[in-house]
Write a structure and sequence with these properties.
It is elongated and about 70 Å long. The chain folds into three domains: about 180 residues; about 90 residues; about 100 residues, no CATH class. Helix content is about 40%, strand content about 20%. The strands form five sheets. The chain has a seven-stranded mixed beta sheet with strand order 6-7-4-1-5-9-10. The longest helix has 25 residues. With about 375 residues, it is of the alpha+beta class.
Length: about 375
């Protein structure tokens, strides 16, 4: 039976501290994420969600010395929360770093250096140093970890073997925890992180575009929907905190505080809309485009699209406009739509497809109707 260790790569020493001979990781800043992520018996490979090739600092720790409940166990991604005073990695935990990298005060005794001649050699030199340390830790089965595959000592790990190894790794942790083998992106914690990262923009959207949005001809009160989202998130925070027996309570309390602030702001906006009419326009077309823009913004945007040299007859132009406007309305930044538009043109290019409408026809319909049939004022807010 092979030993198992946890391996984490990062670009610097940020967050690392030496607490009387025990290596720990502190939560960095006011990030919406409170989890620290490792691989098992190997370094993570770069993929579409992250580039780790130039991350020269490596942390190696024994699972049995981790003093925290573990939220998830996967070979490519094992994670746990940072406690109020940090995540204790144990006395055996070490740091590997390229020669020449300045070490913060207090970490000197925990760092082992490996030689690197050029910046381009960091990844290869790092992985050689990791392999040597894994040998010193008694690790027999080394994993080569990619985005879509795992290899053990150069042999492919099939799905059955994968979960057998995960179950074995779970037994190494002494503090228990949910220890799901689901991907982090599918967890409650990830959903909360994503919500908190977008909460400010959701509230600003409500301020900027008004409370009523029309999608596929159906009016929706965005303030009510946002309040419902906040209430559901607060219920999920209670569930997540209970799963960890209060270990990350400080983090969840902070999320609750932020959500309460957002809720108060939405309620204030809701009262304001109850007192005055929303003067913005709701854009509705037969292509399903919807959102809140002024007349000038819409005309200017169509003018800009008409000047794009990348548009040709084989493109489904109405679909391109539809998709581009939807993203622009969501992000509220017409200035960034050129890149979005070009991307949608590339996606929409289909050989020999009949064009539904031309840009000129679309623009002409708007101007000739004086916007009456396409841009409509929203219904008055209800008291």
């Amino acid at each position: 039976m092979s030993n198992h260790v946890l391996v984490r790569v990062q670009p610097s020493f940020q967050g690392l501290e030496n607490d009387n001979g025990t290596l720990s990781i502190k939560r960095i800043g006011d990030s919406n994420r409170n989890t620290i992520h490792f691989c098992v018996n190997g370094t993570v490979g770069s993929h579409e969600f992250g580039d780790w090739d130039n991350c020269g600092v490596v942390i190696i720790a024994k699972p049995g010395e981790i003093k925290a409940p573990v939220s998830g166990v996967r070979l490519e991604d094992t994670w746990m929360h940072v406690g109020k005073n940090g995540l204790d990695l144990g006395e055996s935990a070490i740091i590997l770093a390229p020669e020449g990298l300045e070490v913060p005060q207090g970490l000197e005794g925990k760092v082992k250096f490996y030689p690197v001649n050029t910046k381009e050699e960091i990844m290869a030199a790092r992985d050689l140093a990791v392999a040597k340390e894994l040998d010193d830790f008694g690790v027999i089965d080394k994993y080569q970890i990619g985005r879509n595959s795992i290899h053990k000592n150069d042999s492919h790990v099939n799905i059955s073997e994968y979960y057998e190894i995960c179950d074995e790794v779970k037994t190494k942790f002494k503090f228990g925890g949910p220890m799901t083998t689901d991907q982090h992106m599918n967890t409650l914690d990830c959903r909360l992180e994503d919500l908190m990262a977008s909460m400010a923009s959701k509230v600003n959207r409500l301020k900027t575009f008004g409370r009523v949005e029309v999608v596929d001809g159906i009016s929706r009160n965005m303030d009510d929907m946002l309040l419902q989202t906040i209430d559901e998130a607060q219920q999920n925070i209670v569930l997540a905190n209970n799963k960890l027996n209060g270990y990350a309570e400080h983090y969840y309390q902070n999320l609750t505080y932020k959500l309460n602030e957002a809720k108060e702001e939405v309620l204030t906006i809701q009262k304001q809309y109850g007192q005055e009419s929303d003067k913005r326009f709701v854009l509705v077309s037969d292509t399903g485009v919807s959102g809140h823009k002024s007349e000038g913004e819409v005309i200017q945007f169509i003018d800009n699209l008409a000047k794009k040299p990348s548009l040709h007859s084989e493109f489904d132009k109405v679909r391109v406009i539809d998709r581009t406007l939807q993203e622009g309305i969501r992000d509220r930044d017409l200035g960034s739509l050129s890149e979005v538009f070009d991307r949608e043109v590339r996606k929409a290019k289909i050989a020999n497809r009949q064009v539904m409408k031309s840009i000129e026809e679309f623009r002409a319909n708007i101007e000739q109707s004086n916007l009456g049939s396409i841009i409509k004022p929203p219904p008055l807010p209800s008291n």
